[in-house]
């Protein structure tokens, strides 16, 4: 039996902050990815984490990208990394690590992914991080995997059509195979937890079927983990807030032509509902 994800369940978390709060109270997100040609993915994930309230966000990416990535978003702290040793001081400071947006599947990408996997930090794995895991599977307790149906098919060695035909079985099998929390994106996104919990999100719309919306979701989820939510709660709240932001964007300007960054202002509204 699946539960419906409801925003009311998280009202205490989304309430007012203490007047004496500081940025260290709200966690430090590290986003790893952005191979050549895909720098936008890490930028979107990082800024989405800030928009839902993360205190600090760092980006680990190709050195060429790090020099210019925060021109439009100076709040992002960008670092060029060429090998896993460059990552160690960044990972040490992180509350949560998001790995995969724009990562690619090169030797550089694999080295960075598995460096993150070897840490004890909470992880959110998306995009090419998932595609690498499909070829070199790992099991972990404290991570959240966020595949779309195609990525889920690769992870489970099944055609995408088979995933879509029985999405409930697919998300449960993902969680059993890889551990942690699994999020199967798509119409009626499903979230599976380690104790057999299954939740469904009824919000969202077809306008969100465009490049980058998954990167925004990984940032939202990572931002909630950084602020202290457990992995299952962060996944459920992240999925819901992301979908509701998409619905608000569609109501404002329509579904057709929606782009991922249209969600930013609505993310901020939703996490400030009190």
Instruction: Let me know the number of strands.
Output: 10
What is the structural class?
A: alpha/beta
- Portion of residues in beta strands equals 5-15%
CATH architecture classification name: 3-Layer(aba) Sandwich
Determine the CATH superfamily: Ribokinase
Instruction: Count structural domains.
Output: 1
Query: Number of helix segments?
Result: 11
Q: Provide the gyration radius in Å.
A: 17 Å
- Major beta sheet, specifics? 10 strands, mixed
Helix share of residues? 40-55%
- CATH class reads Alpha Beta
Which fold does the CATH topology refer to?
UDP-N-acetylmuramoyl-L-alanine:D-glutamate ligase
Distance between the termini: 31 Å
């Amino acid at each position: 039996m699946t539960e419906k994800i409801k925003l009311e369940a998280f009202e205490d978390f989304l309430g007012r902050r203490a007047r004496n709060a500081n940025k260290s109270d709200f966690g430090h997100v590290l986003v790893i990815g952005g191979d050549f040609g895909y720098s936008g993915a890490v930028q979107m994930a990082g800024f989405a984490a800030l928009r839902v309230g993360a205190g600090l966000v760092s980006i680990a990416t190709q050195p060429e990208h790090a020099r210019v990535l925060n021109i439009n978003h100076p709040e992002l702290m960008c670092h060029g990394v060429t090998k896993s040793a460059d990552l160690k001081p960044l990972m040490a400071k992180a509350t949560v690590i998001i790995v995969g947006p724009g990562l690619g599947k090169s030797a550089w990408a694999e080295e960075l992914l598995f460096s993150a996997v070897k840490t004890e930090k909470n992880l959110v794995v998306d995009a090419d991080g998932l595609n690498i895991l499909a070829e070199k599977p790992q099991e972990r307790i404290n991570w959240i995997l966020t595949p779309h149906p195609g990525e889920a098919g690769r992870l489970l060695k099944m055609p995408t059509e088979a995933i879509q035909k029985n999405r409930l079985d697919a998300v449960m099998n993902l969680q059993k195979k890889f551990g942690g929390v699994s999020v199967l994106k798509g119409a009626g996104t499903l979230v599976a937890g380690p104790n057999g919990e299954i939740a469904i999100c009824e919000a969202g719309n077809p306008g969100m079927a465009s490049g980058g919306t998954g990167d925004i979701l990984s940032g939202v989820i990572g931002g909630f983990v950084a602020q202290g939510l457990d992995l299952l709660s962060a996944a459920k709240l992240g999925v819901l807030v992301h979908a509701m932001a998409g619905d608000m964007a569609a109501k404002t300007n329509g579904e057709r032509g929606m782009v991922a960054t249209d969600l930013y202002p609505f993310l901020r509204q939703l996490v400030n509902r009190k």
